[in-house]
């Protein structure tokens, strides 16, 4: 299957990328009130203020951007530049990494296929999927070209892992829990990364970079650069997540896991770096006793993360289908 990044300029949208009408971004220009924007949390502010802002944003949006987070511009810029250079490599140099084998620690693929009862369509993207932490055990699996790729990825992966742990401690404190409650086996499944490359699209109204979905890990840390394309669901409508310089976007299922999607554009390529911090597959997931009361009983049954992962894959990341499988249904 031809990589989108192998073609310098796309003059038309091939049929296999044209989404069904009901899955197109038809309401791209019909967003919520433009004054509704994703919260931006300054991690350099007072600790209690930061905690309050994170909990508030988690409950209202499920997404928030963080600035003054301690990850240097240089670390982010060096890896983003190296990743863009990888996609720009000649086709023959990328070919050895091309694979649809999900077990590989590093692989290059194109699209992802959207399938329903009537058709099969492809998303407008190429992507790298890789295991990136702990980096010292994985570095030899990463490509040697471009020259800066391995070193810049190792530095970026460590910095993002540290940022993720910091935010999880703040969330735990905000919920009145021990700061380490979300660490240990809940982040012991390793950190996976998707580096998404969305080339300029000749007709964005026909395509999707990614259809609406929710993330499955404990925490997602996203660098979207300076090109818009990410949209989040807020009160049943879509809002644009406008890029903030040197900001990371955080999503999590601890408070509110929100649907989001990626749209395409005709002006510029977009590169997003998505780091997902995963629980161990045999982690036992259930509502924390400290958060369960007679007034707020458990809404979901206990399960292993492995079971959730299988359900997520089977449902193609459809939020309601996955939640229905684990929700405790009232007898009435």
From TrEMBL:
Q: Record's SUPFAM superfamilies?
A: Clavaminate synthase-like
Protein name stated in the entry: Fe2OG dioxygenase domain-containing protein
List the molecular function annotations (GO) for this entry.
metal ion binding; oxidoreductase activity
Which key words tag this protein in UniProt? Iron, Metal-binding, Oxidoreductase
Spell out the PANTHER family in the cross-references: OXOGLUTARATE/IRON-DEPENDENT DIOXYGENASE (PTHR47991)
The segment(s) forming the Fe2OG dioxygenase domain are: 189-279
Which InterPro entries does UniProt cross-reference here?
DIOX_N, IPNS-like_FE2OG_OXY, IPNS-like_sf, Oxoglu/Fe-dep_dioxygenase_dom, Plant_2OG-oxidoreductases
Organism, by scientific name, is Digitaria exilis
Q: Which Gene3D superfamilies match?
A: B-lactam Antibiotic, Isopenicillin N Synthase, Chain
Q: Which domain of life is it from?
A: Eukaryota
The family classification in the record reads: Belongs to the iron/ascorbate-dependent oxidoreductase family.
